[in-house]
Design a protein that fits this description.
- The chain is mostly helical.
- It is 59% helix and 0% strand.
Length: 172
């Protein structure tokens, strides 16, 4: 009898019965929440009526995702090379308008990696001296803009290309 009580109390305290880490902390699941919020905002009332339609659109959105969002899609099974499949954990709740924060909270209990994803810090191009950045950072700026620098060999070439494209890719 005492063993049962001790085991039950241990299970309760360790979080098996009442999970203590279910609620999200500030800044947690940043990629998950942003991706699902953007995705849900693009769904029409007609789309939400069918879980299969939501799933197809989610896979299409994951096909276009890059960087951290692509990694998120991989974790949930939205990419073609993903080994897992948790799409139903997203599509069903979206069909009855469950908020993305609550969906991500649930996903965290299934796979903690999902909530560990964080966006990279963005460089403020209006206030930074491009000459002080590394070539790798300059290349990343162009990559984030889906632009290329054909024929760029030196740092000054990358800086010149960023200066040319800055107006169309940044908000003043």
């Amino acid at each position: 009898m005492w063993i049962f009580i001790v085991l039950s109390l241990n299970a309760l305290l360790s979080g098996y019965i009442f999970p203590s880490e279910a609620a999200l902390k500030e800044g947690e699941c940043e990629v998950c929440i942003k991706f699902l919020t953007n995705f849900a905002s693009k769904l029409t009332d007609e789309d939400v009526k069918s879980v299969e339609t939501i799933q197809q659109k989610l896979k299409a959105a994951c096909g276009k995702a890059k960087n951290k969002e692509n990694r998120f899609c991989y974790y949930i099974g939205g990419t073609s090379d993903a080994a897992t499949g948790m799409l139903n954990e997203i599509t069903k709740p979206l069909s009855y308008h469950k908020p993305p924060e609550k969906i991500c909270e649930r996903l965290k209990t299934l796979d903690a990696q999902i909530c560990e994803l964080q966006y990279d810090k963005q460089i403020d191009l209006n206030n930074v001296d491009l000459k002080k950045l590394r070539v790798k950072q300059l290349k990343k700026i162009l990559s984030d803009w889906d632009e290329e620098c054909v024929g760029c060999l030196e740092k000054s070439d990358f800086i010149r290309r960023i200066e040319q494209l800055k107006a169309e890719h940044t908000e003043l």
